[in-house]
Amino acid sequence: MANKKFNWGVLGPGRIAQQFGDALLAIDDAALYAVASSNLERAKAFAQQYHGEKTYDSYEALVNDPQVDAVYIARPHRFHFDNARLCLTAGKPVLCEKPLTVNAVETKQLIDLARAKNVFLMEALWTRHLPIYLQIREWLDEGVIGDVKLLVSTFGINVPKGETDRWLNPELAGGTLLDMGVYPIAVSQWVMGREPHSFSAQAYLGKTGVDELTAVNLKYDNGVISQFSSNFISDNANEFLIYGAQGRIHIHANFWAASRATLMTGDREVTVSKPLRRNGFEYEIEEAMRCIRAGLLESPAMPHAHTLANMELMDKIRTQIGLKYPFEK
Question: What are phi and psi of 287, to 5 degrees?
Answer without folding.
Answer: -65, -45
